[in-house]
Please model this.
Amino acid sequence: PLVLAASQGNLPSVQQWLRSGADVNFVADEGEAVTGPRFALGAAAAGGHAEVVEALLEAGAIPGLTDGNSRALGIACRSGDPVIAALLLDAGADATIRSRAGHSAAMLATILGCLEVLPLLPLTAEEQAQLAGHETPRVPLVPVLDFAAAAALRSALCSPSRPAAAASHAARPA
Model:
């Protein structure tokens, strides 16, 4: 039920489940009828529900939790959601963990053309070299980014005026 409420972005329901003692880090079994990520944080990230992600993190959700298929940060990077990516990074999500295919969060976002999150996820020189041969119109080669600049951007996106910051970030031309 918590996973379903999180996937629907139903913050009052998520808060009610948490108050009633639901395990914020519960991972549904593969056989259960769950579409998408099988854990609440991943389900909220997949739906683009930043307020639910924030509530789950405040309730103790593990930012790097996986259901065996994905992590919330990878989901946010695949969908290009800089606010959710910033929330997860600030909560301690590790952007250097590689997917089963060997991609970091930054490489995944680049390959999929989700460039909105790249300022938060610096590419290493090795990753840049790997991406140099990747040819698709949606994937420009991005410069190596400064970790301090990425931290400042995360801070701005997670500030109390986050919706305004996110809106202005989203309004920038790609």
